[in-house]
Amino acid sequence: MTDGFDDHTTAKAGEKMHTSDKSGIIDSMSDDVSQPKSPEAEVVGEPGLALARSQAKLAEMAGQHGDSPQSGRRVVFGLEDVSVSYSGTVAIRDVAFDIHENLATAFIGPSGCGKTTLLRSMNRMNDLIPGAEVAGKITYHGQDLFASGVDAVEVRRRIGMVFQRPNPFPKSIYDNVAFGLRIHGMKDDLKDRVEKALRNAALWDEVKDRLKDSALSLSGGQQQRLCIARALAIEPDVILMDEPASALDPVATLAIEDLVGSLKSDYTIVIVTHNMQQAARVADMTAFFSVDSDEAGNRSGVLVESGPTSDLFIRPSDPRTEAYVTGRFG
Question: Domain 62-69+100-113+150-287+303-325, what fold?
Answer without folding.
Answer: Rossmann fold (3.40.50)
